[in-house]
Every structure is written in structure tokens, then in C-alpha cells.
Amino acid sequence: MTPTVSVCIPTYNGAPYLTACLDSVLAQTSSDIEVLIVDDCSTDDTLRIANDLARRDSRIRVCANRHNLGLVGNWNHSVTLAHGEWIKFVFQDDLILPECIACMYTVARDTDVPIVSCARDFLFEAGTPTELQGEYLRHKARIHAAFAQSTQWSARDFCEAALKSLTIWNILGEPSAILLHRSVFERFGWFNPQLRMLSDFEFWARIASNTGTVHIPEALATFRVHELSTSGYHRETEAGQYRFAVLDPLLILHDYAFHPLFAELRAVANTRHPPIDLIDEFWKRALGALWHANRAARKRVPRDTSLMEEWQVAVRGCPRLASIPFSVKLRSKWRTLRRTMTSSRKRQ
């Protein structure tokens, strides 16, 4: 029989945390679930642990990829292997409360919304920098504040939130805090593998800007923060930070401006006072991103080409970036000249 919910656990070298993760999933009060572990060619004991647990519980199904698909590729592959009507991602190092799935499913069923999020707590491993802990806690508070007035948003409500200051941030949270109806993949496509860090948010935005969303303010999931996580890895280098803070938001802004499935968001942008020109904003940010990469490659001693290499990867995934309009470059030079002249007058 088809399970109501498929719990998808994409794994890669997750041996230290997988057992705790699975314990939290198997403790769910909802019994109509399958647990699908899809391993992406781990080199540690992840697959052995998964198979050992599967022999003890018939709800667990283990699949091993023949070739490494990468983070986002494995997310998408997990969905293709799932049998459930609903998809609940739980990442290998995260935890969910026993009532998580039952509560999220009830809300989804009662509101007829295909994407539901819940609040989440954080489990900071020893050695997590205080500054990083503060960053995560501020993000949690920001989500709480966003849904303070209403926990159910229409498509327009979501668009308004996404357009606020045009700051690209994950309004709904990480995949372990999300429940999706599997029809969203047929309607809105798949996670975008061109994005390294914000592919989850871009997919949530693609869905919710058309369907609306519901948020559960109780924390039903726990997101583990540790140095081995993908997010931790990308924060360690300047190239990783450039990708996270500059390029991923730029590629999402590209889709806001041009992707057919963001037509509703563009319509809302045009009704703002003043209207938001998403195409112009995209080109301005693209020019700024290229400037940062060029500056690191040409003006630093020693030269750092890592940012430019990241830029080239982004261009291959989004060819439009290769042809920034001359008018955009000209306006940028004029703004720089005006700032220089104004600063010079003030000094005089």
C-alpha cells in the first residue's frame, strides 16, 4: 500500500549522526510512513548503519547510488524513489519530535496547502562559534516575527515577504522543517542543482509564491549545527562565503526576474510603491558580483582566483550572466563618479 508520508533521508558520510536521526523518525506517533535512506556513495559507515537498522525495522528502505549525485542531486533522486503522497525530508544530522509528522500532516490536510513549515530549534555542537550561534538564533527570531500576525499566507502574502527589501533569506527554514505534497514536483519542477546553499529556499519560493503556505509556530524539528555540515564547509573559505552570500542570491534573483513560475511574484513587485524592477535589480547585483570576483583576481597580493572560478561556474549554469548590458555598466560608472564628486566636495 502507498504510505501517506515518505520520510526521505539523503545521506553522505553521516555515520556519526544517522542513528540518532533515525531514532527520532521511527519514534513518530504517525505510523503510516515509509523511511527512505538514499546514500550518495558514502566513504564511512553510513551505508552499513543504514542497512543494519533496515534489518530491524521493515519501514526502512535503503537505496545506494551507483554514482555520487551531489547534495541537491540526491535530494531530487530521493523524491523519485519515494512512494508516499507527502514528502518529509529529514537530514542525516537533524532530529524531529515524535509528533512532528502527525502535526504537519494534519495542518496540511486541514488547510489544503501543499507546503507546510514548522519552527525548529538548534543543537549546537561543542566548538560552534558564538557568532555563528547568534546568526542562527537571529534567523529563528526573524521567521517567528514574519509569521507573528498570521501563520497562513496566501501566494501574495508570500510574494510580499520575499520582496521585502529584496533580501534573499530562507523564510521557511531548512528541509527538515518542511512537509511537501509530492504534486509540487510535477507542478513546479525540482530543486535547482545550480544553487549550492539556497536551493531549498528557492524551491520553497517557487511553490509558495503560487500556492501560499502555512507555518506551525511550535518547534517540531531540531537542526544540528556542526563543523562537518555542508553549510559549515561553505562558510570556511572566502569563495564559499562569496557563493553563499552573493552568487546564490543572485541566481535566485535571476529566477525572480525571468522564470515563468515567478510570474506572480513579478506581478506583485509591479504593484509596490514604487514598483520594484526585478530585471534592473538583477543586473545591478550581477555587476557587483563580477566586480568582487575581478577585484580578488587582479588587485590582491597574492591574487585569489577562487571567486572568479565560482563566478564562471555560475555563468555556465546561468548564461545570461555572460552578457551584462552596456547600459548597466555605464550607469554604474556614472553612480561611482557622482559618489566620488560628492565626497570630494565634502572634503573641501
Describe the structure.
The N and C termini lie far apart (80 Å). The longest helix is centred in the last third of the chain and has 22 residues. The protein is 53% helix and 16% strand. β1, α1 and β2 form a beta-alpha-beta unit. The chain is built from 14 helices and nine strands. The mean pLDDT is 93. Strands 1, 2, 3, 4, 5, 6, 7, 8 and 9 form a nine-stranded mixed β-sheet that branches. The chain folds into two domains: 232 residues, Spore Coat Polysaccharide Biosynthesis Protein SpsA, Chain A (Alpha-Beta Complex), CATH 3.90.550; 110 residues, no CATH class. With 348 residues, the protein is an alpha/beta fold.
Question: Helix count, per DSSP?
Answer: 14
How much is the average pLDDT? 93
Find the CATH superfamily of the largest domain.
Spore Coat Polysaccharide Biosynthesis Protein SpsA, Chain A
**How much helical structure, as a percent, in the residues?**
40-55%
- Stated plainly, the CATH topology of the largest domain is called Spore Coat Polysaccharide Biosynthesis Protein SpsA, Chain A
Name of the top-level CATH class of the largest domain: Alpha Beta
Number of domains: 2
Strand content: 15-25%
Core attributes:
14 helices; 53% helix; Spore Coat Polysaccharide Biosynthesis Protein SpsA, Chain A; 348 residues; alpha/beta; nine-stranded mixed sheet
Secondary-structure blueprint of this entry?
Blueprint: E1 5-11, H1 15-26, E2 33-39, H2 46-56, E3 60-64, H3 70-81, E4 86-89, E5 95-96, H4 100-111, E6 115-124, H5 130-146, E7 152-153, H6 155-163, E8 178-181, H7 183-188, H8 199-211, E9 213-225, H9 230-236, H10 238-258, H11 263-271, H12 278-298, H13 306-317, H14 326-347
Parallel strand pairs: 1-2, 1-4, 2-3, 6-9
Antiparallel strand pairs: 4-8, 5-9, 6-8, 7-9
Helix pairs in contact: 1-2, 6-8, 6-11, 9-10, 10-12, 10-13, 12-13
